[in-house]
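Minutes, project check-in
Item: structure for the 208-residue chain
Input as provided by the requester:
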Amino acid sequence: CNYWFHVRHLNSDSGKMSKSKGEFLTVSLLEKNGYDPMAYRLFCLQSHYRRNLVFSWENLDNAAVAYEKLVAKIATLKNEGEVDEAVFNQLKERFVGALNGDLNTSLAVTAVYDVLKAKTGDATKLAALADFDQVLSLNLLEAAENLRKKQAEEEAANADPEIDALVAARTEAKKAKNFAEADRIRDELKARGIEIIDTPQGAKWRKV
């Protein structure tokens, strides 16, 4: 360990957390309550180490939602094409600059979102995220891959050729600008308890 330093306290609404007051967190407690420890890590990273951090289950819920959305967004990226080294270096420069600014992890997390918004290919984005996560340790790419596998398994379990054909027909109707037919198919599926969700990867469906 080359560097060692104090950070500010983790507080609750009533003040500093401490063992003596029987008020402290453990990873096992978080998992027992259904939280991914990575959500708690993100919660901590969103604050500067020189500032007191106020913990509440509501704040952790917000971090958990943010983490799930972040992973879901990464799961849509496809590892195709070549890495644009120039863009990669620009993205990394922002990330390293944040860390060089007195270890500003809050800005470093913002740099992660900047990657997702960058006008570049998915391969470059994934390379940058993998590089950044060596520092952040948020398990982003593995969590995204696990989500993709889960979604694929759910789609396979819910496969219905008839409904798939109707969804495909609706897509073709929309492409042909036959919106009346597209709406008719949507309404037919809705009446059967099927909701269509339009995504960048195409139309999906689920039972409601």
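Outcome recorded: The chain is about 60% helix and 10% strand.
No further action items on this chain.
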